[in-house]
Amino acid sequence: MSRRWLFADQLGPHFLDDPDQSVLLVESRAVFRRRRFHRAKAHLVLSALRHRAAELGDRATFVQSETYSPAVRAASDDVSVCAPTSYAARSLVGRLPVEVLPARGFATGEDEFARWAASRGGKRLLLEDFYRQARQRHDLLMDGGEPAGGRWNLDKDNREPPPRGASTLNVAEPWWPAEDDIDAEVRRDLDAWEASGEVSFVGHDCPRWAAATRAEALQVLEQFVAQRLAAFGPHEDAMLAADPWMAHSVLSAPLNLGLLDPMEVVHRAEAAYREGVAPLASVEGFVRQIIGWRDYVWNIYWHVGPGYRRRNALAARRSLPTWFTELDADAVQARCLTDVLAGVRDRGWVHHIPRLMVLGNYALQRGWDPAELTDWFHRSFVDGYDWVMLPNVVGMSQHADGGLMATKPYAAGGAYINRMSDYCGGCSYSPKKRTGDDACPYTAGYWWFLHRNRDRLEGNHRMAQPLKGLQRLSDVDDVVAQERDRGSAPP
Ligand SMILES: Cc1cc2nc3c(=O)[nH]c(=O)nc-3n(C[C@H](O)[C@H](O)[C@H](O)COP(=O)(O)OP(=O)(O)OC[C@H]3O[C@@H](n4cnc5c(N)ncnc54)[C@H](O)[C@@H]3O)c2cc1C
Ligand code: SF4
Question: What pTM was estimated for this model as a whole?
Answer without folding.
Answer: 0.96
